[in-house]
Structure to design on (253 residues):
């Protein structure tokens, strides 16, 4: 079924309805499962050429194979995003194989939960390097090309944990609060070049990322809800951008 074009308030700009990302290259991290995989599926449906990244090569290839079976153009590149040399190689291989990165979705993330006083320095480093430093390094790697082309979109998958504290969440919350600060500042630094930087902040999503003991998973956010928010951000009219999306379930699980 073909959906009618959405007409923005200025009544001149129409969002494409067929394959709006045709010819665009999107790099999605943490793409082998959960939220990242849902985002990859949605971008493939929109016609994007995808570079998918995750640590687990076998899981990543299975995800890429599924998308290829649906006709998507997909490159699977395993990488450890805590290593700057692997980030540089990831971006280089993507652009050599598919073309310039026009959309970057920083989704990869890990969580360590428990009292701050019991956490180790190694746990702190692992979470902050994955959830925050990697976003900085990846964005820094694709920004020069976007600046030259004077276009591009960077979407960071943050969390409501970047706005709310909770017992046992010290390291994770610190990483997400930092990510929102980084996102806001990058948006100001890059908006003059036609580059839009946004954050999506979901509440708990029904994935295997963290335990959800006692919650009804059917009432929780689903990975596809986050993918929908990403697609919505990408479809904004040229003269505006959504800086932040707060995503909650209709009913508390």
């Amino acid at each position: 079924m073909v959906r009618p074009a959405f007409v923005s308030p200025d009544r001149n700009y129409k969002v494409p309805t067929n394959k709006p990302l045709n010819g665009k290259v999107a790099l999605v991290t943490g793409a082998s499962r959960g939220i990242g995989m849902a985002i990859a599926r949605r971008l493939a449906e929109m016609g994007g050429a995808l570079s998918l990244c995750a640590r687990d090569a076998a899981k990543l290839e299975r995800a890429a194979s599924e998308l290829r079976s649906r006709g998507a153009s997909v490159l699977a590149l395993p990488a450890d995003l805590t290593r700057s040399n692997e980030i540089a190689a990831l971006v280089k291989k993507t652009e050599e194989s598919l073309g310039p990165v026009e959309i970057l979705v920083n989704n990869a993330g890990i969580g360590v939960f428990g009292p701050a006083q019991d956490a180790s320095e190694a746990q702190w480093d692992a979470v902050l390097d994955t959830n925050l430093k990697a976003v900085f390094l990846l964005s820094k790697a694709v920004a020069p090309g976007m600046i030259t082309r004077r276009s591009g979109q960077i979407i960071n998958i943050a969390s409501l944990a970047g706005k709310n504290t909770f017992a046992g969440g010290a390291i994770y919350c610190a990483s997400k609060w930092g990510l929102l600060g980084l996102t806001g500042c990058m948006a100001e630094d890059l908006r003059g070049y036609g580059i839009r930087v946004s954050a999506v902040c979901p509440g708990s999503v029904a994935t295997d990322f963290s335990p959800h003991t006692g919650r009804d998973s059917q009432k929780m956010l689903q990975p596809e809800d986050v993918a929908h928010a990403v697609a919505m951000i990408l479809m904004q009219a040229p003269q505006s951008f959504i800086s932040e999306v707060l995503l909650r379930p209709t009913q508390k699980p």
In short: The chain has one domain: 25-247.
